[in-house]
Amino acid sequence: MKAIHLNNRPVGTPQLSDFKFETEEQPHITTGEMLLKAIYLSVDPYLRGRMNEGKSYIEPFELNKAMSSGMIAEVVESKLDGFSKGDFVSGMLEWKEYQASNGEGLMKVDGSMAHLSAYLGVLGMTGLTAYMGLIEIGKPKAGETVVVSGAAGAVGSVVGQIAKLLGCRVVGIAGTDEKVAQLKAEYGFDAAINYKTTENMSHAIADACPDGVDVYFDNVGGEVSDGVMLNVNRFARIIVCGAISLYNATTMPMGPRVQPILIKNSVLMQGFIIFNYMEKFAEAIPQLAQWLQEGKLTSTETIVEGFENTPQAFLDLFEGRNKGKMIVKI
Amino acid sequence: MKAIHLNNRPVGTPQLSDFKFETEEQPHITTGEMLLKAIYLSVDPYLRGRMNEGKSYIEPFELNKAMSSGMIAEVVESKLDGFSKGDFVSGMLEWKEYQASNGEGLMKVDGSMAHLSAYLGVLGMTGLTAYMGLIEIGKPKAGETVVVSGAAGAVGSVVGQIAKLLGCRVVGIAGTDEKVAQLKAEYGFDAAINYKTTENMSHAIADACPDGVDVYFDNVGGEVSDGVMLNVNRFARIIVCGAISLYNATTMPMGPRVQPILIKNSVLMQGFIIFNYMEKFAEAIPQLAQWLQEGKLTSTETIVEGFENTPQAFLDLFEGRNKGKMIVKI
Do the chains contact at A267 and B262, CB–CB below 8 Å? Predict the structure, then answer.
């Protein structure tokens, strides 16, 4: 069976050669373990940080060892109480076709409630990130204006839809005309901006947000966010969830200082990591599942077929080639 | 009698010529008014923002009209219930030797509880700014490390002392060796750094904060803050109270982008303005007064004599010529 190892720590933009496919022996399980077969694998921008050396909020990947991310797996053999052959589980797993597990950190998922891949997206880490970040930090009130960057992505598209469900005016920023059209037609955004064809982001935001910006859910950082910052209202809340535009930078990214804007408008900026909100997942997942079943939440997935295409699927995230959640089907 | 008007809107660093002394007739009061004689006048960095055109959290000063700031005045004649000749009041007043007032926004102050000028400093806006910003946003816990920039200033020196009273390790940043010595000797800071003679602020902060930075009370912005930001702990809280190093900038000040740091460490950054916390003044003032009377809080004032020296006293703030609260005695 195959496993995908970290071959090099990338400098700047990751390359295919930073990954290495290794052939390993299929593991045998002992009492208290189960054998898992990988079904779906999630590639996410935050994994870029784990490819670097040095401490962050989550341990770095080790060189010459398998990488890992959120995955859905099928139990193909079990010597572990509570898990039976044919069950499906979700959790952080290694990038291997088969692996043994003692069940720690894994959650059984129900394929009849939603498609299994949804547990990596709208009912998984990305949906929870959207929900928790928007509700817990953004605290949007009906009638307020919410701006989302990376709006067509896995997190952004859910943020926008939840904000609409809460009665907000929602403006999305994305990188192609196709995505901009999708934001309005499929996700119900009130307005959307293609940052790649927009000369002056600040003016574009001002046009799209006649009452200013109350909540900014930031997935990208960089110049897109600079434009939004110039339009924030008094008491605005900024969820700093991602900075995909900066993740591959090899020198310290520079930009306009935010402090004068924060003071002038009493703005809150909060770095957001989903792992800090785990104790609230139990209340969020049923709400997301309900919206999904009622058809109030549209979940878009880009499914790449084949374990061997995992590295390329990851690299494609940084080119914006995904629509919604990027998932590899193994 | 004299009044000080805004003569020009400054571009960059303000000049004496941006102010103009005008001779006006002493006002006569009618029923429901009192005549006030200015005693003390507060000059503060935030006034720089009000000299610009354009909306901020507080209205800009008008050209060719008197400026205003926090002042202490004596009632010299009263036709207003509740105020008698000989009373002292504190509040936002115009830069005039005499003025009529209907009492709106003014508070009687008690010269027997503390020296009158204290109501512009440790018991006034700057003390309240220190207290509210530190407690409400910083939420310091005993044993945590609190860093304060502009530490020898009116706000910073009180922030540091309150943080010590709450059991924190306190590190101050100031701009002269004399101030650094004062922070340790007079205010009880655990360590202090002269940013003007420090080559690498990030290393200096790391040395002074072996357990990292949990709370950063930022009065200055700019490169000093860049160095602190590189040392923040997980869940750090940053009170963005002032950015004196940026107030006179004529182009958008640039610096390292903060978003990756905020995400990596789940950091909160909150723009702070004292005017948002007025409903909590009533609980804060008695606490500050008690600490002051018990000798637990040292209040330093730089008192400049003479109304005619008000513009220069204001300009001196940006050169760091004050120690503690800068006040003009009229």
Answer: no
Domains belonging to chain B, first-starting first, are: 2-120+300-329 (3.90.180.10), 125-275 (3.40.50.720)
Under the banding of pLDDT at 50, 70 and 90, the label for residue B55 is low
Predicted pLDDT at B260: 92
Cα separation, B242 vs B45, in Å, equals 8
Asked if A137 and A273 count as a contact pair (C-beta separation under 8 A), the reply is no
Q: Going along chain B, which residue ranges are E strands?
A: 2-6, 19-23, 34-42, 68-78, 88-94, 98-101, 107-109, 145-149, 169-174, 191-194, 213-218, 232-240, 254-256, 268-271, 301-305, 325-329
Q: Which residues of B touch A264 (CB under 8 A)?
A: 49, 56-57, 271
Cβ proximity of A131 and A162 under 8 Å: yes
What Cα–Cα distance (Å) separates residue A173 from each residue in A148, B238, B290?
6, 28, 52
pLDDT category at B182 given cuts 50, 70, 90 is very high
Evaluate if residue A264 carries a pLDDT over 70: yes
Q: Where are the beta strands (DSSP E) in B97-144?
A: 98-101, 107-109
A133 contact B CB<8A = no
Q: Report ipTM for this prediction.
A: 0.84
Which of B206, B222, B205, B255 lies closest to A252, judged by CA? B255
**pLDDT given at position B286:** 87
Say yes or no to pLDDT of A106 above 70.
yes
Asked if residue A55 has pLDDT above 70, the reply is no
Cβ contact, residue pair B259, A246, below 8 Å: yes
Give the predicted TM-score (pTM) of the model: 0.86
Tokens encoding B127: 């003390």
CA–CA separation, A277 and A288 (whole Å): 15
Residue B259 to residue A49, Cβ atoms within 8 A = no
Closest Cα to residue B262, out of A150, A122, A253? A253
CA-to-CA separations, B118 to B115, B124, B183, in angstroms, rounded: 6, 7, 19
Tokens of A294: 């009622």
Range of weakest confidence among A82-86, A104-108, B83-87, B156-160? A104-108
Q: What angle do CA B117, B123, B125 make, to 5 degrees?
A: 90
- d(CA B285, CA B156) in angstroms, rounded, equals 17
A211-243 confidence digits (pLDDT tens) = 999 999 999 999 999 999 999 999 999 999 988
